[in-house]
């Protein structure tokens, strides 16, 4: 099956996976690296499975046959539009947590 690629679309030209990140080199020279925790199938795959990838549509995405995973370049560049990433509150210092805890009103028990 042939996939048409918009000439203005950024394409992947190289892919590498470590034990904790996927790194993609783009045709415009940018290098994007994201944590594997964003992609549980890749995170749980063997090193051999992570190395066995192929491009989708000439580089608009990457496919791993053995683990049935597809990742688009667009999702790497704009993850907020494509993935449900966990929203975490920024960590607070122990001092700030203690001050917040002290300010909590006491509830009378009856």
Describe the structure.
With 110 residues, the protein is of the alpha+beta class. The chain has a single domain (12-102), classed as 2-Layer Sandwich (NE0471 N-terminal domain-like). It contains five helices and six strands. The protein has helices at residues 40-44, 47-51, 73-77, 79-82, 94-102, and strands at 12-17, 21-26, 31-35, 54-56, 61-64, 69-72. The strands form two sheets. A three-stranded antiparallel beta sheet has the order 1-2-3. A hairpin with a 4-residue loop joins strand 5 (61-64) and strand 6. The longest helix is centred in the C-terminal third of the chain and has 9 residues, at 94-102. The termini are far apart. The model has no long low-confidence stretch (mean pLDDT 81).
Strand and helix layout:
Elements: E1 12-17, E2 21-26, E3 31-35, H1 40-44, H2 47-51, E4 54-56, E5 61-64, E6 69-72, H3 73-77, H4 79-82, H5 94-102
Antiparallel strand pairs: 1-2, 2-3, 4-5, 5-6
The biggest beta sheet is recorded as:
3 strands, antiparallel
Strand order of the largest sheet: 1-2-3
Order of H and E elements: EEEHHEEEHHH
What is the count of β-strands?
A: 6
Quickly describe the structure.
The chain has 110 residues and is of the alpha+beta class.
Summary tags:
110 residues, alpha+beta, NE0471 N-terminal domain-like, three-stranded antiparallel β-sheet, 5 helices, 25% helix
């Amino acid at each position: 099956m042939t996939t048409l690629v918009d000439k203005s679309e950024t394409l992947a030209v190289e892919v590498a996976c470590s034990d904790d990140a996927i790194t993609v080199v783009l045709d415009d020279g940018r290098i994007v690296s994201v944590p594997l925790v964003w992609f549980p199938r890749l995170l749980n795959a063997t090193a051999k499975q992570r190395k066995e990838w192929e491009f989708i549509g000439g580089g608009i995405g990457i496919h791993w046959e053995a683990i049935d995973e597809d990742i688009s370049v667009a999702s790497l560049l704009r993850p907020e539009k494509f993935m449900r990433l966990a929203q975490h509150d920024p960590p607070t210092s122990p001092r700030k947590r203690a001050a917040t805890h002290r300010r909590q009103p006491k509830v009378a028990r009856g």
